[in-house]
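For the sake of transparency, this paper describes our internal protein records without simplification. Because each token names a local backbone shape, the row as a whole describes the fold. One such record is reproduced below, unchanged from the form in which we store it:
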Amino acid sequence: MSMHPAGRWAAALVAATLLAAPAAAVRAADPYEINAILPLTGNIAFVGQTEQQALKALEGYVNQTGGIRGRPLSFVVADDQSDVKTSLQLAQGLIAKNVPVILGPSSPQACAAIAPIIAQSGPVLYCQANAGQATPGGYEFFAAFPYEPQFAVTFRYFRARGLRRIAYIVSTDAGGQDVERAIATTSALPENKDVQIVAREHFSPGDITVAAQMARIKAATPDVLVAWSTGGSGGTLLRGARDAGLDLPTVTSTGNLSANFFKQYQSLFPTNLYFAAVAYYAGDAVGTPASKAAVASLTSALATVGAKPDMISISIWDPALLLVDALRKLGPDVPAEKLREYLAGLRGWVGANGAYDFRAIPQRGLGENNVVMVRYTGTNPGVAVSAFGGAPLPGK
């Protein structure tokens, strides 16, 4: 007896559903990939390797807490070799795949090279450098507070301690130019009318000596030296200051607030080395219970991969976790435009860096109230010497 056409259609539908179910289940269990471009080799490899380790820890933490709507998370890291052209090529490849987000890269020059090609339609680019200017409401976001809050807090701290003659040396590249603009903006604030910039020096990131610049700085008799660069060039600045006999309170890039930098360049450090850093280093003053819980989660997760928090791992942890939370809320198939809209309007999300407010501080979410001055002690990489915003702690 032949089956009625409607019956044959229903049977076929059931069969197709049964055949599709295992495939759908497999797809649901497939890892959700977040692509990252990091410098795993090259001159800032210590930054990328630390970031990769933090992402590995976060991947485990996320997967232990449900993944992304039941799908395990996988960070897929591509090495840009600390090279701008390579970073741009990798980004172009990911854009061709229509990914919604790229985490990284880690240098301001690489982020600046990629920014124009994602400006109109994405994907979201969550740059891991804090140098650079992003368009409010655009697709480019930055992992840390901008330089202006860092220097506002730095100047406030030293000014309150009676140290008001400041010299600086910065690189001639885009990152150094951003630093110099931020110093100029900060020094022009009414509260800093008694602060004097006594020396303005520059160097090329490839220079192996800054002896002449340090000699001029020494002749200007500053109270404080801002020696701002990351990695090997940061070490060059500290070596130059030591060789010139400059043992001043010195502020360097927060990108150097890492165990790898300390291990390589500790012998060059001045007696007092400072960083304008994040809430993790505020200790008991870290703030709200939510902030303390976020720091505890970070610390616990990093311990599973044999690491401790530092400025580099903290700086990538929050953006990566923020993206995970967004994907959990919006769904893994969210387009870049919806992800951008969500991030741009986000307020009150709390991470290891404290509370974020992207409406008040577009594309970054962090400002002066997230910045604390810390000092390297040798036994502790970062001890808070100020409250949030820069007011010195008693005796510090």
